[in-house]
Design goal:
It comes from Odinarchaeota yellowstonii (strain LCB_4). It is a multi-pass membrane protein. One of its GO terms (cellular component) is plasma membrane. The chain is mainly alpha-helical. The chain has one domain. Helix content is 76%, strand content 0%. The mean pLDDT is 85.
Length: 454
């Protein structure tokens, strides 16, 4: 193996180590930049590749930035705590009903605001709710597992539900509606099985009834302002309508979500500053913006450059060949196998690098091998399924799940690796199996394909 090939693999391995271990609290953006700079230094990528990375990733990075900004703003407004209080009221002291409602709230937040936002915002709220309701540690974990697993599972139906989806759509130039057509039914099935499997594992620990006492969550102005609720829902509906419209006029999805985030920031600044300036719950705009993970922007570009460097090591060719072969297997096996391959690789490699490696490999297979429209569509969405569900198999597969572990730990609770794997490994296999079955029905039986390949 020549020098550049060895360097590419070594840089990729080092970057993964920095991303997962985060020595001395290293920001993920800095970790990716280190990998990108080393790739340039050792010649595994060129300056032209770096410019290409900007071209490929800018919409996804900007869209995810908009999603996180929108989520942080809504959190500062007290929207998510307000929603949590609502579902506690709807549950009416029924522990099983509360379990379903928390899972559905998590799914809704993940779909609209991405899985990372669902984990970071809702997990602390669930920790606090279950503490105030005096649930035992075992009972509290039921609701936390539901929140953690459903957050990743539900992040598939919309392009903006996950950066994985955005990058994939940008890579192959398909629209919001194209994505929804294929991944909408898949998400319904996987969310159902996530809720069901976690319930079956922990059903004996779910309190049948609990004392529906008052839970104290500071919702800011949301609790008394019906006009603010209307503004927020009107904004969210407008954003969703905007997604559909951009599908027809081929505008980047980042323009829609960033516009919605900017509008709510303006509302927050003027309305909230006037209404609750005397309250400790008010956060200044600079404080709010500091909560946005700016490192994600450079992370997405940097890690793409590192993955591009693997081409010189022949890894892209190798994965392209495997993916192509798996897609030629007969019937359902041709859909299940590529999803399982991506799931296993993502669970041990981390889903972000695997997403990009999968996309680069699929694009190479499309151009060099000449995939049929059905095979190309199958591999694109198998890559999404595996990278969204793969982290359930092993926790290092997702930064969101690692953040979930950290939030739970800071909440005074502990989840051992064995406890996680007992549920996650089984759930992952079930979800991939049924997701691939739906994809097989859509592509293999109905003959649906992405318009770009027809």
């Amino acid at each position: 193996m020549e020098f550049k090939s060895i360097a590419a693999v070594a840089i990729f391995t080092l970057t993964l180590f920095l991303l997962l271990k985060r020595p001395k609290g290293l920001n993920i953006g800095v970790a990716a930049v280190i990998g990108a700079l080393l790739s340039l230094l050792f010649g595994t990528v060129t300056v032209f590749d770096a410019l290409g990375a900007l071209t490929e990733i800018w919409d996804a990075a900007l869209a995810f930035f908009g999603i996180v900004t929108l989520s942080v703003t809504l959190d500062a407004m007290g929207f998510f705590k307000w929603a949590a209080l609502k579902i506690i009221g709807y549950a009416k002291g029924d522990g099983r009903r509360l379990y379903i409602y928390i899972a559905l709230l998590t799914a809704s937040v993940s779909i609209l605001f991405a899985n990372d936002s669902a984990i970071l915002i809702l997990t602390p709220i669930v920790v606090e709710i279950t503490r105030q309701l005096d649930f035992k540690a075992g009972s509290r974990m039921v609701y936390l597992f539901a929140a953690g697993f459903v957050a990743d599972t539900a992040a598939m139906p919309l392009i903006t539900s996950n950066p994985v989806n955005i990058v994939s759509a940008d890579f192959f130039h398909y629209t919001f509606l194209d994505h929804l057509l294929f991944m909408g039914p898949v998400t319904v099935v996987t969310v159902f099985f996530s809720i069901l499997v976690v319930y079956l594992f922990f059903r004996s620990k779910i309190p049948v009834v609990y004392e529906a006492k008052c839970v104290n969550l500071d919702c800011g102005f949301m609790k008394s302002s019906s006009s603010m609720v209307k503004i927020i829902f009107a904004t969210l509906i407008s954003v969703d309508v905007g997604y559909v419209l951009t599908s027809f006029i081929r505008l980047p999805v980042s323009t829609v979500i960033c516009s919605g985030a900017f509008f709510l920031l303006i509302v927050y600044y003027f309305y909230y500053k006037r209404a609750v300036a005397a309250s400790n719950t008010y956060k200044s705009l600079p404080t709010l913006l500091r909560e946005v993970n700016w490192g994600i922007l450079v992370f997405m570009i940097g890690i793409f450059m590192v993955v591009q460097g693997l081409r010189v090591a022949g890894i892209v060719d190798f994965i392209s060949s495997i993916m192509f072969f798996s897609s030629t297997l007969p019937s359902y096996a041709g859909f299940l196998t590529p999803s399982l391959i991506v799931t296993v690789l993502a669970s041990f490699m981390n889903n972000w690098p695997m997403t990009l490696l999968g996309l680069v490999s699929i694009r190479h297979a499309v151009s060099a091998i000449g995939l049929t429209p059905g095979a190309a569509t199958n591999l694109i969405f198998s890559n999404i399924i595996g990278n969204n569900i793969g982290p359930h198999f092993f926790p290092i597969g997702s930064l969101a799940i690692l953040m979930w572990f950290d939030v739970i730990r800071r909440g005074g609770l502990t989840v051992t690796l064995r406890e996680y794997l007992r549920v996650g490994s089984i759930l992952s296999i079930i979800e991939v199996a049924f997701s691939s079955l739906i994809l097989y029905f859509e592509v293999g039986l109905l003959g649906l394909t992405l318009p770009i390949f027809t």
